[in-house]
TrEMBL record:
Subcellular locations according to the entry: Nucleus
GO biological process entries: mRNA export from nucleus; mRNA processing
Region (Disordered): 182-203
Protein name: THOC7 protein
InterPro entries in UniProt: THOC7/Mft1 (IPR008501)
Primary role: Component of the THO subcomplex of the TREX complex which is thought to couple mRNA transcription, processing and nuclear export, and which specifically associates with spliced mRNA and not with unspliced pre-mRNA. Required for efficient export of polyadenylated RNA. Plays a key structural role in the oligomerization of the THO-DDX39B complex.
Family of this protein: Belongs to the THOC7 family.
Coiled coil: 77-104
Pfam families: THOC7
Compositionally biased tracts (Polar residues): 194-203
Predominant subcellular localization, coarse grouping: nucleus
GO cellular component terms, A-Z: THO complex part of transcription export complex
Amino acid sequence: GAVPADEVIRKRLLIDGDGAGDDRRINLLVKSFIKWCNSGSPEEGYTQYQRMLSTLSQCEFSMGKTLLVYDMNLREMENYEKIYKDIENSIAAAHEKISECKKQILQAKRIRKNRQEYDALAKVIQHHPDRHETLKQLEALGKELQNLSHIKENVEDKLELRRKQFHVLLSTIHELQQTLENDEKLSEAEESQETQMETEAKQ
């Protein structure tokens, strides 16, 4: 059956290292060296020598390329680490900013609540007179209270005078009644005496 492409690639990587053909070049270089050692003529030896130089150049080029790729990978790793640290710092700064924004939002809510309470109090205060007007009203009420106190004193004095006058009047009426009773008794006594004298004169 057909061999899957993944299996072919896996075998090539196992045989060829990282896939750059280094193992094949080294094997070729060893074979060229053996042939060069066993060469029978100078021309064949020179040919094998040139092949070895070409293979060495390819190996050196591959090694230089691999070193460049390695250095590039190191720089990329350093760059990625720097980017990672920058991202971590950015995330930390974002968290701090979010926390600060939350504090600002809470403070803004408190300020808004206070302003609403102040507005409500201001509306209530607007329905009441100001301090100067209130002091004028208090002064007017004080004067009115003082005037009422004087009126109360005058009324109490008049009431006391009327009470005394009424008491005098009652005393006078009582004395007058007593006098009238005495006069009536005296009149009755005189009439009784006159009646008795008339009776005695007739006898």
